[in-house]
Task: inverse folding
């Protein structure tokens, strides 16, 4: 099985407020994983990102991929129950945001 990591969209506006200093991720998966979304949160594996999932209770964390120098370079979310956003900052610099929807949900135009 091959996995395709979705990139963040750097053209999406940054969430309001200062850059976060600590990641905010959903709780770990419980039970069987049926659908997942893979998101690249950092441009390289060397420097990871501070990652914020909002709302944090709209999914479960399945896999978190650490970067060499700390932070997160990628995540896999499962059990997505409502639309959510994933935003990332590397060294305090905004990297982008992506919206994840539940499996089978209609995309927003």
Result:
């Amino acid at each position: 099985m091959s996995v395709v990591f979705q990139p963040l969209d750097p053209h999406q506006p940054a969430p309001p407020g200062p850059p976060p200093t600590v990641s905010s991720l959903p709780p770990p998966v419980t039970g069987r994983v049926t659908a997942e979304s893979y998101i690249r949160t950092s441009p390289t594996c060397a420097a990871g990102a501070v990652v914020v999932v909002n709302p944090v209770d709209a999914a479960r964390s399945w896999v978190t991929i650490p970067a060499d120098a700390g932070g997160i370079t990628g995540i896999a979310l499962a059990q997505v129950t409502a639309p959510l956003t994933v935003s990332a900052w590397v060294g305090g610099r905004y990297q982008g945001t992506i919206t994840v929807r539940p499996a089978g949900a209609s995309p927003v135009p």
Summary: The mean pLDDT is 89. The chain has one domain: 6-100. The longest strand covers residues 93-100. The two ends are 30 Å apart (CA to CA).
